[in-house]
């Protein structure tokens, strides 16, 4: 489907992607590999699975394992999974709306531009969506690497439930990242790097606050009584790893967009 839109010259030069008009090439709702309705289905399936997994894990964690429900939210793994869930719920909503918009325009044989809600929402919500994307495209790799390299033990496979949740939250999380990278067209903007680092810093503060208030070490490698050197290494190493992963993903996304420069199912004719 072809339609005209005034050329936006800021898209490739924005630190945060909050140019005007927002997302003129529909990167957030199109794919270089599949049509928009297929992208919608992919994101919807991931949203349903991630939401069902989060709810099942929370219910079993609180009711079966007899642990306080508020403890569920002190682990970075689970917060990252909630972020994945939120992103795929939001992105599938906007993708679905965009597909309906395309079908309505085809039905009425008009060349008007399709749209989706986030394009008309305020800059703050647009910022939050792109910020959320920057976390789900980088944090899952950190979770996967740290868990399997440092935290995994015999309890990982203790029961079918723990096996399923650990595979979901410590392996499938990275698979979801790869799927979004391959099938999506969302740009990773450099300005969000500092917010990712701040997020990690805030979580570190939360981890020590939990220990001070509940006497729980969320992750044993944060306990300074075991080894100050190891704690310092983790505190410095994880943000460094996030920085490396962020810029690797930034480069891979630009390479993807160079190989697949256009979204399937939609063609934008830019005019001055």
Automatic annotation (TrEMBL):
The keyword Hydrolase does not apply. The chain crosses the membrane at residues 37-61, 81-102, 130-151, 163-183, 190-211, 231-253. Keywords: Membrane, Transmembrane, Transmembrane helix. Coiled coil: none annotated. The keyword Transcription regulation does not apply. It comes from the Eukaryota. GO terms for cellular component: membrane. This is Uncharacterized protein.
